[in-house]
Design brief:
Length: 712
């Protein structure tokens, strides 16, 4: 591993190549001149010297002797020099044999906490590789610990490979750099003993062997020790099964499905034992930066880091880290269900729902790899090929199930008329934006908003192409114009638009005095257009089925409308937005919402900024002057009438939600919000707190987009 390099000592110090020539430095003390010259600078002012020293240089400068910025200060605070693996073993601070079960459990649990800290965005050098045992695992004599440390290397390599393939991480999510440490079995430097590499089969066999040995010890030990041996065996078994499951996820073949689910189920069972026995291991010393008393040096790799890197990393607490692993396994098990989604619309809904859970970077990456091979991110960059054609077929089936255009149903497979060529070119053009849509769903929620705005630009060109394809197909087939492909694209455009606006509510980007035009836009236009698009798609699909029936096709069984529930939910959300809009206008008329001062505010500019990404698309953006004209009548309405109108909207949403026979958590949350807001607006309409100017509170704890209105 890292310490096997002839020129690497495990603490960021490279072996000198030879005797350096003696250098004489002529230091000049400028302290007095420095303080004399900065007297003219006020607090917060920066020095600017033409092209030599500007804002960039000032922001990049390192304040010497500042522990937060000067890397040397973090290493030289009077602490003893960190010991590497060999030094720690020689001085007796690191045991490599005859370890007690409690010590092994403590080391493994601390390593798991370090892995979690790495997955939360910290560097490998400051987390996992503060474990000295990982620097020379092949020199460890204790067999369970040796097997575990080798497995950690393999596991880290598998995790990094999965995340790198999916490409849904940002700098705050994940740091893929290894800082010179080798992961897996791919040596990075020339001086490397390849005989130390273990194949996957060998190291899996090594882990199995240790599981059996530990279970044997548990059977012949007393109850207290047996529990510790069982806990240790569970940790080894979990590591093996988790690694094997990740390997199957990255391979993603139909044969491995049952095996992967079985492995993840086994991981969940092992996590129960691990959490139960977490108290059997050695615990971190209070007020210590090390996650375990033995085997960890927090400052070990400090000098490997760049000078402007964050100096301090707090390792995740063990109970939280173990809970993190348990939840991650559950999410991976849930992510595997994407393999049963045969329809693109169903898969897209799954992606968006999975994203709302704020899953970790590994489970988000696994979901990307499970649906498309190699990944949606790769689809956005690769040219025509087998994977490209597979995704084209997925989109083709999606269009069939959504609008069932005659051009995809009637033409014989062996012919290549202009209509089919146009469709193939259009589908090929669709691959990039639709794959990007799936990729965006894999990013963290904060980053999705900016990426949705960029995605709208991609769809803008696609709308024009869809209209052209519809026109060419109608002319070629001699049929009346049908906007089949245009409706399909419009449906997804509207979903992106709605997701973009709602993300601002979830991320708390809007001020309360901006809520009214956000909910107005959703109520009057986006949800209305989406309901209309679903209705048009259903009509087009029905026409195609009737024409097939007339042409002599066999009689088809009447099936439930696939978009019925989605259309119902769109009507629910449209009514909810209408209720919020009218309530907010009433609050504004009664002076219950604080408004920005006129000299510092321009509502037209704010409105334009909020809806700017929507300007490039069809349907056309509703401009501010149109918004003012359309909402002017309500600005002079009686607030009581507006409250009653809001009540009506929330009641309508409630009635629609109660017709759903199998409500999920989303429906139950919306139902709670609708009921509560109905009661609140009813009280306000009856004159409750009519004289109060205290602003209402908008509570997003129940639902991320639609708050409960609370009167303070």
């Amino acid at each position: 591993m890292a310490d096997n390099d002839d020129y690497y000592y495990g603490e960021g110090i490279m072996d000198p190549l030879g005797t350096a020539p003696e250098v004489t430095y002529n230091w000049v003390d400028i302290t007095k001149d420095f303080f004399e010259n900065i007297k003219d600078l006020e607090l917060g002012e920066l020095l600017h010297d033409g092209h030599l020293f500007g804002l960039f240089e000032a922001m990049s400068a390192i304040e010497m002797m500042d522990p937060k910025m000067d890397a040397g200060m973090a290493c030289n605070r009077g602490n003893p020099k960190p010991l590497n693996f060999q030094q720690a073993v020689e001085c007796g601070k690191l045991k490599i044999d005859d370890l007690e079960p409690s010590e092994l459990i403590g080391i493994i649990d601390a390593t798991m906490a370090c892995v979690v800290s790495w997955l939360e965005g910290h560097s490998l050098a400051q987390t996992v590789f503060t474990n000295l045992y990982l620097h020379q695992p092949h020199l460890i004599k204790n067999k369970p610990l040796k097997a575990y440390c080798i497995a950690v290397y393999k596991l880290l390599d598998c995790i990094r490979d999965c995340i790198n393939k999916a490409q849904v991480f940002e700098e705050e999510d994940f740091l893929p750099m290894c800082y010179g440490y080798r992961l897996g079995s791919s040596p990075q430097y020339g001086n490397y003993d390849t005989s130390l590499d273990l194949s996957e089969q060998k190291f899996i066999a090594m882990l199995r062997e240790q599981e059996e040995e530990l279970n044997k010890k548990a059977k012949i030990s007393d109850s207290e020790m047996a529990e510790a041996w069982v806990g240790l065996a569970a940790r080894i078994r979990f590591t093996r099964m988790f690694y094997q499951a990740l390997q199957l996820i990255t391979k993603r073949d139909g044969v491995s499905g049952a095996d992967c689910v079985a492995l993840l189920n086994g991981c969940s069972e092992m996590m129960k034992v691990i959490i139960r026995t977490s108290g059997k291991g050695t615990q971190p010393v209070e007020n210590s930066d090390a996650p375990n008393p033995m085997g960890f040096e927090p400052m070990m790799n400090q000098r490997l880091l760049p000078p402007t890197f964050p100096r301090y990393t707090r390792i995740k607490a063990r109970p939280e880290a173990l809970q993190y692993f348990d939840e991650m396994v559950t999410r991976l098990r849930h992510a595997w269900k994407i393999t049963s989604c045969t329809n693109f619309h169903t898969a897209l809904d799954f992606f968006m729902e999975f994203s709302r859970q704020r899953a970790c970077i590994l489970s988000r990456s696994a979901l990307q790899l499970l649906y498309l091979s190699p990944s949606p991110a790769a689809m956005t960059t690769m040219g025509p090929g087998p994977a490209h054609r597979i995704f084209m077929d997925i989109l083709r089936d999606s269009i069939k199930s959504f609008v069932n255009p005659p051009a995809l149903a009637k033409l014989p497979p062996g012919t290549t008329p202009p209509a089919r060529e146009f469709i193939d070119k259009f589908l090929s053009r669709c691959v990039r934006p639709f794959a990007a849509f799936l990729q965006v769903c894999g990013h963290n929620r904060a980053r999705q908003r900016d990426k949705l705005a960029m995605l709208l630009d991609e769809f803008a060109g696609l709308e024009e192409e869809a209209e052209s394809v519809d026109a060419v197909i109608s002319a070629t087939m001699g049929t009346p114009a049908r906007a089949c492909f245009g409706t399909w694209v419009l449906y997804h455009v509207l979903r992106v638009m709605i997701a973009y606006l709602l993300s601002g509510l979830e991320l708390e980007l809007y001020s309360v005095h901006e809520y009214h035009y956000i909910f107005w836009y959703l109520y009057e236009f986006l949800y209305g257009w989406l309901v209309s698009a679903l209705g048009r798609a259903e009509g087009l699909s029905g026409e195609a089925k009737r024409s097939e029936k007339k042409s002599g096709s066999r009689k088809l069984k009447k099936r439930a409308r696939p978009s019925a529930r989605e259309g119902l939910m769109c009507q629910v959300l449209q009514s909810m937005c209408g209720g919020y809009y009218k309530a907010l206008v009433a609050f504004k008329l009664q002076g219950k919402i604080r408004q920005p001062q006129c000299e510092f505010d321009n509502e037209a500019v704010r409105y334009k900024h909020r809806f700017a990404p929507l300007a490039v698309l069809t349907p056309p953006q509703v401009h501010y002057h149109e918004f003012c004209e359309m909402t002017r009548p309500l600005q002079h309405e009686n607030p009581i009438i507006l409250y009653l109108g809001g009540c009506k909207h929330f009641q309508q949403a409630r009635n629609l939600l109660e017709t759903i026979t199998t409500p999920d958590q989303e429906v139950l949350d919306l139902l709670k919000v609708a009921k509560t807001n109905f009661i609140v607006l009813k009280l306000l309409a009856d004159g409750h707190k009519s004289d109060s100017s205290t602003p209402p509170d908008f509570d997003f704890s129940v639902h991320r987009h639609f708050p409960i209105i609370k009167l303070v």
